[in-house]
Specification:
The complex is a heterodimer of chains A (212) and B (327). Chain A has 212 residues and is an alpha/beta fold. Chain A has 7 helices and 6 strands, in the order αβαββαβββαααα. Chain B has 327 residues and is of the alpha+beta class. In chain B, strands 4-5-8-6-7 form a 5-stranded antiparallel β-sheet. Chain B has a 4-stranded antiparallel β-sheet with strand order 9-10-11-12, sandwiched between helices. A 3-stranded parallel β-sheet of chain B has the order 1-3-2, with helices on one face. Classes of the chains: A alpha/beta (212), B alpha+beta (327).
């Protein structure tokens, strides 16, 4: 039931309407939304373009982007670690930029393009960052990994665009970023790994930069 | 999180109309407000999402200054070509704060309004916090106060302001532009945040319903600058002490100096006496030490944070040395 529903949601086409109930609840989504509205729980509609597919969701305002992705869209690759913006496990790309999905309201992302770890591979081929994490064993338990990988994908784009970091020697100089180990560590500092796989994560990001 | 209603606005006029209602709060990216709501510290009944207001531009002012729209993301401000070239201090301070993900979200206006990370404020399990619950006392006074203020505190509150950006803005004499029910006004940075006094529940001099629209920077000669942030880990942590130092040099003489401290007070702390000591002199370590001592004159440490008095002085010396090319 659970798996088939998830598959259904992943293959759903444009403008499919989902209700304000977490996945797996028994009632039909639309009726549930109406019942909640009648019970005084305010539900609003939002369209999120997740991994290239539009999802129309009816959500209470307090649902975060993280919970919307996991519990309503059914994509559980994005992880809930601290849920307070301190660990980075929930990192996704919103309109191409990495953000913490836990500290963002789903309703605030009306029309936004969201990419989660599930949206990185192309035609069965891993993204260069995913492949580098596998090659360099950039994880142990794996819980922080989807966030680490999404973060690293954005890091490479930011560096390629010349964005400085706190360890960039001189922010006044508009020059290409050289991704030293220090630069990678600083730019990945929003992603905590409690297993301590950091050396291999740094190696993976370095490898991915060369491969990109 | 408790229930609330959500309204998105697309122009300033609607924002002011919606934001003026009782129980309404403006919502920027929410990186601090949502966190506080999850913890039960803040419980707004209605959020007015202002992130889609057309206030994200960063543009030159006719007088050579720069206007940074309130909705500009911290990362966009830090990475903007004109900010990097003319206000490297601001770029550095922004990059020293939070994480790349949070900087991509957090707005410049929201950064100014973030609240203290004092544990006793943040954790509702503690009963005494005058900032959260006026009149209840200050648990930090007799508690674990390693991260707390050494300057400008009061018996009501010894919390510190957490922003790095605001420290650089204080050093650069920025002005906060505000729209409210009574019209527009411009608030100099030094008057924007408040010392706790006996009303620590008020962090700033903004009135209810007032919306920050931009931060203006005056034309600056302060390209010799350094933001030094000292913290318990190398990245992604709040400052124990930070220093925004900037110098305008004529040959080897100091024509202008700016020193502001973070992590030591309820607001970004401008060390104007220390600045005055530097003017007209040539830089020497001796002089910098004197200036640093002047900056912490009158400091009042608590049980666990006496180290900050020494740390702040050493940080001031090092930040000025780095800014002035002595390091």
């Amino acid at each position: 039931m659970d798996l088939s529903k998830r598959r259904f949601m992943q293959s759903a086409a444009a403008a499919a309407a989902y209700g304000a109930v977490p996945r797996g609840a028994a009632q039909t989504p639309v009726r549930e939304a109406a019942e909640r509205a009648a019970a005084g729980q305010h539900v609003q509609s939002v369209t999120l373009n997740v991994n290239g597919r539009p999802y129309v969701l009816a959500l209470e305002p307090r649902v975060t982007l993280l919970d919307a992705l996991r519990e309503y869209v059914g994509l559980t690759g994005t992880k809930k670690g601290c849920d307070r913006g301190q660990c980075g496990a929930c990192t996704v790309l919103a309109n191409g930029r990495r953000i913490n999905a836990c500290l963002s309201l789903a309703l605030a992302h009306e029309g936004d393009d969201i990419v989660t770890v599930e949206g990185l591979a192309r035609a069965g081929k891993l993204h260069a960052v995913q492949a580098a994490f596998v090659e360099h064993d950039g994880f142990q338990c794996g819980y922080c990994t989807p966030g680490q990988i999404c973060s690293a994908v954005a890091l490479l784009a930011e560096a390629a665009a010349g964005a400085p970091s706190a360890v960039t020697p001189d922010v006044r100089k508009l020059e290409p970023v050289r991704l030293t180990d220090d630069e990678i560590r600083e730019r990945m500092s929003g992603n905590i790994c409690r297993c301590g796989a950091y050396p291999n994560i740094v190696a993976a990001v370095k490898k991915a930069e060369g491969a990109a | 999180m408790n229930s609330f209603s959500y309204v998105r606005v697309s122009d300033v006029e609607s924002a002011l109309r919606e934001g003026g209602a009782a129980g309404s709060r403006f919502l920027g990216a929410g990186t601090n407000l949502l966190d506080l709501m999850k913890g039960g510290v803040e419980q707004p009944r209605r959020l007015i999402d202002v992130t889609r207001l057309p206030l994200a531009a960063i543009e030159e002012l006719p007088d050579g200054g720069l206007r940074i729209g309130a909705m500009a993301a911290n990362s966009d401000a830090a990475n903007h070509q004109l900010v990097r070239a003319r206000y490297p201090l601001l770029s550095q301070a922004l990059l020293a704060g939070a994480s790349p993900q949070l900087r991509n979200m957090a707005t410049v206006g929201g950064n100014l309004l973030q609240r203290t990370r004092c544990y006793y404020f943040y954790d509702t399990a503690f009963g005494a916090c005058n900032k959260r619950n006026p009149g209840s006392g200050c648990a930090a006074l007799e508690g674990y106060n390693r991260i707390h203020a050494i300057l400008g505190a009061s018996p009501s509150c010894i919390a510190v302001h957490p922003s790095d950006m605001a420290v650089a803005l204080a050093a650069l004499d920025a002005t906060v532009r505000v729209h409210g029910p009574q019209g527009e006004r411009a608030i100099p940075m030094r008057e924007f945040h408040r010392l706790p006094g006996d009303t620590p529940q008020r962090d700033t001099n903004l009135e209810h319903g007032e919306l920050i629209t931009a931060v203006d920077l005056p034309a600056s000669q302060f390209t010799k600058a350094h933001y030094l942030k000292l913290r318990d880990r190398a990245s992604y942590a709040f400052a124990l002490v930070s220093v925004a130092a900037a110098l305008d040099m004529q040959g080897n003489r100091v024509r202008g100096a700016r020193i502001a401290l973070g992590g030591v007070a309820h607001k970004p702390w401008r060390a104007t006496q220390a600045e005055a000591l530097l003017i007209g002199s040539s830089l020497s370590t001796d002089l910098l030490r004197k200036a640093a001592a002047a900056a912490v004159e009158g400091a009042k440490p608590y049980r666990d944070n006496a180290f900050k008095v020494e740390l702040a002085q050493r940080a001031i010396v090092r930040a000025l040395q780095t800014a002035g090319g002595m390091a």
